[in-house]
Amino acid sequence: MSRTILFNKPFGTLPQFTDKGSEGSPRPTLSAHIDVKGVYPAGRLDRDSEGLMVLTSDGRLQARIADPKHKLAKRYWVQVEGLPDEAALEALRRGVTLKDGPTRPAKAEAIAEPEGLWQRDPPIRVRKSVPDSWIALELREGRNRQVRRMCAHVGHPCLRLIRASIGPWSLDGLQPGQWRDAPDLPLRG
Question: Domains in the chain, please, with CATH?
Fold first, then answer.
């Protein structure tokens, strides 16, 4: 019987169970939070990003979630420098051209700070002369540091990045470092 869990990855935690690249003191990994045997991450989430990860013992489900050809939507809450105008949001919606080529169109909207959001440790850097704001960005691809690069491309560097959902699964009240079993849901593109 397969098992799938949802995990709210804290800032600074590696998205893997061991730290193979650490010289000196080891960095926090998934094993500091998850004691379930036989589940593996379906996709990655940078060490300096927070939020939802799906881990599963089902190899087919893992491939389906991680493979961009299935176009499973991933929604992010992004705290950015500045106040993006409609032109910046529209550029994200159309797709932008990064060094590794054009991105697919994304859903992008300005939002208020998400309700119930936890404090990040350490806190983001704040500049008194530059306001910050939040956008929701939904992608159906997953290049290396793509959300950060897209936001910087439209002139709004990312201060904080939280993945809120993957396909039908969401954080839904999970606090950083917490996990729960995922409901069995049929996946559609």
Answer: 1-70+172-184 (3.30.70.580), 73-166 (3.30.70.1560)
| Closest residue by Cα to residue 67 from 170, 168, 167, 171 | 167
Report the predicted TM-score, pTM, of the whole model to 2 decimal places.
Answer: 0.92
Nearest residue to 136 via CA among 104, 169, 93, 82: 93
Residues that are catalytic = 46
Query: Which residue, 90, 72, 83, 89, is CA-closest to 165?
Result: 72
pLDDT in tens, 68-123: 777 789 999 999 999 999 999 999 999 999 999 999 999 999 999 999 999 998 88
Distance CA 170, CA 163 (A): 9
Nearest to 111 by CA among 142, 151, 83: 83
